[in-house]
Design goal:
- It is a single chain.
- The protein is 0% helix and 53% strand.
- By secondary structure, the protein is mostly beta strands.
- It has one domain: Beta-galactosidase, Chain A, domain 5, CATH 2.70.98.
- It has an 18-stranded antiparallel β-sheet that branches.
- A hairpin with a 4-residue loop joins β4 and β5.
């Protein structure tokens, strides 16, 4: 992997660095964020992959990267051949653009625009999104971010058999490959906790709640460092569920958890909290 510095912006105690990252035959852009907790010490607290929409947060420097948040919406698109009942395709991720970062008092504001559609160009659905990501200064062992999004466009969705996955405004992605190798050890919806099963629904049946997330901690995979717990707090209650794909590869994110939203949702807002322990 090689990295090429594209630009750097300093705003108050925040520092933002944009990189072009080359991995084998692919390349993408990443936005890294640093915060000066004291003079001469500015640890990295977030990374946003602009080629996909995945965001990772740390509440302080001595932590390991773990659960990520997909801040672009995801959906199941109807199969192209309706007569043969093609199974459809899962569409998630897309290219994000960050325009003119700024400060609101001490919070970092990143205006966002992007598109979500079939990367192969075969789909009929296309969403254009615009919004912003706001990161508050780290405080009391946690980092809080706010996501506000508005979307426009047409969706042709695979409704039959995909009711739990039809439209996801926010999605958590993590790893659990066994009791000794994990980035998340359990899930929660409000005050209820759920173990991480293999090859099963993570929350079964779906639970109605305003907050959900994945609990981090320390496993043999991180060794000395701790993965953050990541919580999403919604403005309105929603049905929460998830899925765990069996995997023994600790480099494979196999745990997904999300909010189920009506397919006509076009504006949404939520907060993300990364903290030590939960």
């Amino acid at each position: 992997m090689s990295r090429e510095l594209l630009d750097r912006i300093d705003l108050g105690r925040w520092g933002i660095v944009r990189w072009l990252v080359r991995e084998e035959d692919e390349q993408h852009q990443e936005l890294e964020g640093y915060y000066a907790v004291r003079q001469g010490h500015a640890p990295q607290l977030f990374v946003l992959r602009l080629s996909s929409g995945y965001l990772r947060l740390l509440s302080h420097a001595d932590m390991a990267w773990g659960t990520s948040v997909m801040i672009l919406p995801a959906f199941w698109e109807r199969g192209v051949n309706r007569r043969r009942r093609a199974p459809g395709s899962y569409v998630h991720g897309g290219k994000l653009r960050v325009e003119a970062p700024s400060l609101d008092r001490e919070s970092l504001v990143l205006p966002l625009t992007g598109e979500v559609q079939d990367p192969n160009g075969r789909g009929r659905s296309r969403l254009c999104v615009a919004g912003r990501l706001v990161l508050e200064p780290p405080q009391d062992g946690q980092l809080v971010a706010w996501v506000e999004m508005a979307a426009k466009g047409a969706l042709d969705l695979q409704r039959e058999g995909r009711e739990r996955e039809l439209f996801k405004p926010v999605f958590l992605s993590s790893m659990y490959s066994g009791p000794q190798h994990w980035d998340c050890r359990q899930a929660f919806v409000d005050d209820a906790t759920y173990p991480v099963p293999a090859g099963q629904w993570l929350v079964e049946p779906p639970a109605l709640g305003r907050s959900f997330g994945l609990c981090g901690g320390r496993s043999h995979w991180q060794r000395a460092k701790v993965c953050p717990s990541v919580e999403v707090v919604l403005e309105e209650p929603a049905w929460i569920t998830g899925w765990v794909t069996p995997s023994a590869n600790p480099n494979h994110d196999n745990v997904g958890m999300w909010a189920v939203a009506p397919p006509n949702l076009r504006t949404w807002r939520y907060s993300i909290i990364a903290r030590h322990g939960l």
